[in-house]
Write a structure and sequence with these properties.
It contains 10 helices and 7 strands. The protein is α/β, with parallel strands linked by helices. It has a 7-stranded mixed β-sheet. Helix 6 links the parallel strand 1 and strand 2. The structure holds S-adenosylmethionine. The site of S-adenosylmethionine has 25 residues, from loops. S-adenosylmethionine binds next to loops.
Length: 273
């Protein structure tokens, strides 16, 4: 690893020691693990925030980051460090699986009329929860009988603000306006750090969790912690859907693999631990 990284213009320098200190600190706070190959990405953002806050050098900035009571700067920096790539109907086969296999199984076993609860974490700018809501409205007959709640969470407050703007796309006219209202009512956004147990404590009794394209940024330990959180958050028999390159079997034995015609998903046993 180089002892420092050349950034486009002169300014504060981030040494290897600084990078390693920051990497450890950020990992403990967010679960995100930066490999040495991400050095340029990280240094560039640190320099940007050192300059924006007028803290002059890494040392001063790092002190502020750790001890600022409001945590505002850590949030600003986190917003810069996250990768928010997402798009509508991403990995659509899973939505087909949701409509054709998972939901029918859930309602078959349902006693009573409790709403079906879906947790979409991380939601990024909302394309994923809105895709789920659209698929349910357009393709699932059960939507006439069952209430569905989609709680959408992300650590990045900037991207969550963008998520509510997205609703404008649905505000056109006629039927599309109706769709907009239905989606607006179905989806709720919250800021949650999946790696902070005190923040996930209130998230319980979910039937389905979508956690797609986040665990790739975690190391094995944070992945295992996330699996424990999902286990606690799901109802007995609840399902979890991961991104196509992510696998629960490699992380934890808490869930059983369910191979449906359209997708492989993971399920919590009917009996809790
Ligand atoms: C690549 S996006 C995936 C979005 C969506 N699930 C998809 O597959 O299209 C990853 C998201 O994870 C969020 N994230 C990163 N660390 C997180 C954490 N510890 N808790 C909650 N969200 C986190 C980022 O802010 C980012 O929006």
């Amino acid at each position: 690893m180089p002892s420092h990284v050349s950034l486009p213009k002169s300014g504060p320098t981030i040494t290897t020691e600084d990078f390693l200190k920051f990497k450890e600190f950020f990992y403990r706070r967010t679960g995100i693990s930066f490999e040495p190959t991400k050095r340029y990405f990280v240094d560039k953002r640190l320099v940007e925030r050192i300059e924006a806050t007028g803290t002059v050098n890494f040392r001063g900035y790092f002190t502020m980051l750790r001890f600022q009571a409001s945590g505002e700067e850590l949030q600003q920096l986190t917003n810069l460090m996250t990768v928010n790539e997402t798009y509508f109907l991403r990995e659509e086969y899973q939505f087909k699986c949701l409509v054709d296999s998972i939901l029918p199984e859930i309602v078959r076993h349902r006693k009573g009329s409790d709403a079906i609860r879906i947790w979409c974490i991380p939601s990024s700018s909302g394309e994923e929860p809105y895709s789920i809501a659209m698929c349910l409205l357009e393709r699932w007959n059960g939507i006439r009988e069952w209430d569905v709640e989609i709680i959408s969470s992300d650590i990045d407050t900037g991207i969550l603000r963008r998520a509510s703007w997205l609703l404008k796309y649905f505000k056109k006219s006629g039927d599309e306006y109706q769709l907009c209202n239905d989606i607006r009512e179905a989806v709720e956004f919250t800021r949650v750090n999946l790696s902070e147990p005190s923040e996930t404590l209130a998230y319980r009794n979910f039937d389905i969790i979508f956690c797609r394209n986040l665990l790739i940024y975690f190391d094995d330990l944070s992945r295992t912690t996330a699996a424990e959180t999902f286990y606690e958050a799901l109802k007995p028999g609840g399902f979890i859907c991961l991104g196509h390159s992510e696998s629960m079997s490699r992380i934890s034995s808490l869930f059983r693999v369910r191979k449906f015609p359209d997708a492989i998903v993971y399920q919590k046993g009917m009996e809790s631990r």
